[in-house]
Design brief:
The protein is an alpha+beta fold and 326 residues long. The protein folds into two domains: 268 residues, Bira Bifunctional Protein, Domain 2 (BirA Bifunctional Protein, domain 2), CATH 3.30.930.10; 46 residues. It has eight helices and 14 strands. Helix 3 runs antiparallel to helix 4, helix 5 runs antiparallel to helix 7 and helix 5 crosses helix 8. The protein is globular and about 60 Å long.
Length: 326
């Protein structure tokens, strides 16, 4: 944990909330009151350019909440004109991250995407979350560490709130699954300078209330929602899922900063849907031509999430995974 993250944990300062719609914000923090208008031009750097990138408005409503996690700021936008994940990355190329971290939620919006810019279908009542951190330190296995962090945090959240008959799992590399249906996915992006991670951005899409209409593919034959599988959907509301998730994200981020990657990886491996399963990996197309496919039984998952298949000497590091056996 770096000094800035340690100060945030020790001080237990309240989270500051910024929103363009108080009603939407109260769907995530229902007990928050005492809203006041705040003009974006009055905000200090480095926070101001992020707010300006996340909303076209010149003023937002602002309040504070005693948040159980470790994040300093939350930006809650009812409808986002573009991916908040992309917006955070654009601004982070020019400015420092707020030292206490920044959590963003969009109720709905346009131009959202998943892994490798694949389209992500959105629906009101689901969680569309982006998180910006400023580690400013070296991180082991940085190429995959934040994917692992995000996946594990989602799985722990579902364990906590959903009362599922079967544990949720992860389908390599970043799909969150319940009983064979995809209910979520995660993204991560890091900026590195001289081996120092200056910024890390996480994106998490989680179908809480609704399963969006998605055409089936070999890699994603069906999608679902948390409410569809939970025996007690009233207990896993969007508000509860969001607050639990940012709490787990904060705790796991602190663990990662303290050198805890191996523990997070062990959890990821223990919840893998693909270990000991026969799979087919579809490589992305090149110049309009179909990519090659690879088949085999997954023997193990490496330190950098590479897949080791039977009868194959080198590991697999990319491709869309199709389960051939269940």
């Amino acid at each position: 944990m770096n000094s800035q993250e340690r100060r945030r944990t020790d001080d237990e300062s309240p989270m500051t909330i910024y929103t363009d719609n108080v009603r939407f914000a109260q769907g995530l923090f229902k007990d928050v009151r005492d809203w006041k208008e705040l003009r974006l031009g009055s905000l200090p750097s480095p926070l101001r350019p992020y707010l300006e990138a996340l909303t076209p408005k010149t003023a937002v409503q602002c309040s504070k909440v005693s948040e159980p996690g470790s994040w300093g700021h939350a930006v809650l936008i009812e409808s986002a004109d573009g991916s908040q994940f992309d917006a955070l990355n654009r601004v982070a190329r020019r400015y420092d991250a707020p030292p206490e971290g920044l959590v963003c939620v969009a109720g709905t919006g346009t131009k959202f995407h998943g892994f490798k810019d694949r389209p992500w279908e959105i629906a009101s009542g689901n969680l569309h979350l982006s998180v910006l951190t400023g580690p400013r330190t070296t991180i082991d296995h940085v190429g995959v560490a934040f994917i692992v962090l995000a996946v594990v945090s989602v799985l722990q959240t579902l364990d906590d709130v959903a009362e599922l008959p079967q544990e949720a799992t992860v389908k390599w590399v970043n799909d969150i699954m319940i009983e064979g249906a995809k209910i979520g996915g995660v993204l991560a992006n890091c900026q590195i300078q001289d081996d120092i991670v200056t910024h890390a951005t996480l994106g998490i899409g989680l179908n809480v209330e609704k399963a969006p209409p998605v055409s089936p593919t070999p890699s994603v034959p069906t999608v679902g929602s948390l409410h569809q599988f939970s025996p007690n959907p009233r207990r896993c509301t969007l508000e509860v899922v969001f607050q639990k998730l940012i709490t787990y994200l904060g705790a796991n981020y602190a663990s990662l900063m303290a050198g805890g990657y191996q523990h997070l990886l062990d959890v990821y491996r223990s919840r893998s849907l693909v270990l000991a399963q026969r799979v087919r990996l579809h490589r992305d197309s090149v110049d309009g031509r179909p990519g090659a496919t690879i088949e085999g039984v997954v023997q193990s998952i490496g330190e950098d999430l590479e897949l080791f298949l039977d009868q194959r000497s080198s590991p697999v590091t990319e491709g869309r995974l199709e389960l051939l056996t269940r």
